[in-house]
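User: structure tokens for this one?
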Amino acid sequence: MKKVGILGGTFNPVHMAHLIIAEIAREEAGLDDILFIPSGCSYLKDASDILPAKDRIHMTGLAIEDNSHFALSTIEIDRGGNSYTCDTLLELKHRYPDQEYYLIVGADNLFTMEEWKDPEVIFRNAKILAAVRGSKKRADMEEKIAELKEKYHADITLLHVSHVDISSSLIREKIAQGLSIRYMLPEKVREYIIKNHFYEKKDVQE
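Assistant:
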């Protein structure tokens, strides 16, 4: 079966840490492709503070255009309504039953995934690749992984990701303060943001 990674997010904006984590996941898990899926309406965030879908889609496309293993999917935006990972996985499995899915998340999400909609559906339909980016200790993560494996029969692997101190919120803050964001995201994405005056003088959510 074709092994496909899924990296979802608001991508407000997409940045180098997203790309680095995706490439590490591809190599370590032996994935064929990575799907970048910009979220539609996030039930966890204030939609009024997030760029329109068309701009986030365009920036994501610019960011991944030079990697033949990276692809853009608008499945969540096209579906409309709140974006739920479980629904996305079920739709992908229905469309492409011959593909095996690997959900790429930040390791800190391991401690909150049970609060997501239908976590048992997520763990049943995808293997989890967790990138260590936050402050959680590895021992705590291993303990949580064992708990999720016991409760949901989850298949979870920690990715060996060096700390990359870049976030969408940091980029937005720098733009609002008139500071440089060069080298924090692909140059074409930076140029698109500057050209359209995105994030200037306002504080928006990641």
